[in-house]
Amino acid sequence: xxxxxxxxxxxxxxxxxARELQLAGIDVEVVEARDRIGGRAWTDERMGAKLELGxxxxxxxxxxxxxxxxxxxxxxxxxxxxxxxxxxxxxxxxSGTEEEVDQKRVRAMNRIYDGSREFFPNxxxxxxxxxxxxxxxxxxxxxxxxxxxxxxxxxxSQEEIDLTDxxxxxxxxxxxxQGSSLMAxxxxxxxxxxxxAVDAQTLGYKLNNGMRGLYDGIARDxxxxxxxxxxxxxxTHTTSGATVMLSSGEKITCDAVIMTVPVGALGTVEFDPPxxxxxxxxxxxxxxxxxxxxxxxxxxxxxxxxxAPQPAPINMLRSEVFTDDSTIIVGFGAYHDKLDLNDPACxxxxxxxWLPELxxxxxxxxxxxxxxxxxxxWATPRKGQFTDSWHHFRDTGTRLHFAGxxxxxxxxxxxxxxxxxxxxxTARNVVHELS
Length: 435
Fold this sequence. Notes:
Elements: E1 4-8, H1 12-23, E2 27-31, E3 43-46, E4 49-52, E5 57-58, H2 63-71, E6 76-78, E7 84-89, E8 92-96, H3 98-113, H4 116-119, H5 136-143, H6 158-171, H7 181-190, H8 195-203, E9 205-207, H9 210-220, E10 226-227, E11 232-237, E12 242-246, E13 251-254, E14 256-259, E15 270-272, H10 277-285, E16 292-299, E17 304-307, E18 316-322, E19 326-333, H11 344-352, E20 360-365, E21 400-402, H12 416-434
InterPro entries: Amino_oxidase, FAD/NAD-bd_sf, Flavin_MAO
Keywords: Oxidoreductase
Protein name: Putative amine oxidase
């Protein structure tokens, strides 16, 4: 007897889940609310260049993305080296080399990463410390601390704290004082407990053909088409099957559903029966993901990076693309509502924090927080959420399954590696369930 599974969402998690189900001989139907595939990975031609409006960087130490890079014959290249770094501390602009500013960050970052070896001997077993009676309380306590609480003993200068503020405003893509310090410690564990390795894995290397080179390749391997512009309004789920209701009124009956919709957009779907309280609480609270990414084009060639603490609208920026007569700079800020991503005047105000002599030509970006089909950038936990949120979505007790980077064991959110991990693992669980 043939089996049918509906995959909701055509980002990386949804596409690889569909491919995995297809390999097992299961009939798959993929429905996607947007008019394109890729989800929060989106390579688009703007400003005369191929820009990543969402997920950007990859690394060979990320096992799932490297497997896809190998499968589809993609290549990578490094982000440009920065000639001059500018950072703001106590309201004053300082400058030096990238190596110098990194050296100024290392002491505070090492303090923040302290405990990563103890808490995450295997970073893919994120909650193993809860099973250790000698670590459990310490682990939960760390979850309720921010990265700044780790620096509260008076040993660190204002400059070190300001650089920490700038870095983690971008890292959390939200207010770093509200984020769980365990996220930072797990990032360190995924990178051999080393600051330089964290920077390399999250900001170091990009795909020659962009993220599109991968998500288009996966989509071409699917036998069934992906139905675009097809939002889902509801899902009825039982222990033996499910029904997916589309916004058009159409109903799709199936043996199982894989939802790859992120937490920020799960409120657009009505579940029957409703999600359990622990899941619903996460959907209501959402993640600590309130920020945005902007691309700014300036005249001339400038190999620079900038760091600024709150309340600066952009906290981290660096040169990424050079055209014949201009530089395209990428920036990250903790609050999307402080930015008009397509307004050159907004871009000029940002650049003026560091180098007012530069002339901004144009700006672009995509506001993922305001996007109803994402409602967030990448998944970054609030204080208390690392130990009490994402893992509740692993088992609904019915034929409703959740995949996507929000639930990953490894790189949850910030890298597409986590989305690929969950797409494959969730699909395999469904295959076993249906067989």
